[in-house]
Amino acid sequence: MELTIQDILEDLHAAENDCQMFEKKYGILSEYFYAAYINGLLEDNGNPDFAEWSGCYKSKLDRENRFRAILLRDSPILHKLKNISL
Questions:
Q1: Which residues, at least 6 apart from 16, have a Cβ–Cβ distance to it below 8 Å?
Q2: Which of 20, 24, 59, 70 has the lowest CB atom count within 10 Å?
């Protein structure tokens, strides 16, 4: 089953909200947390928040990529703007 643009947007907003919750709690933007996390630069001491936050951020990135792909594929406006860079 292919996700609709509406499904993707709902998932994206949910992932963003989850990421914002962790950003507020730990005082760091998700992109910086994620880079440190995947490179083993955080001492998480088994903190379950970090695994969950990582999953939320990966979901956010996935949904952004899916949204972008659908937008580029289906948008009649973007088909006319061949040189746009997103």
A1: 60
A2: 24
**Whole-model pTM above 0.90?**
no
State the Cα–Cα distance between residues 82 and 86, nearest whole angstrom: 11
Length of the chain: 86
Q: Would you state the torsion angle of the CA atoms of residues 84, 71, 58, 52, taken in this order, to the nearest 10 degrees? A: 130
34-85 confidence digits (pLDDT tens): 999 999 998 878 899 999 999 999 999 999 998 888 877 776 665 565 555 5
CA–CA distances in Å: residue 32 to residues 49, 71, 74, 80 = 15, 27, 32, 35
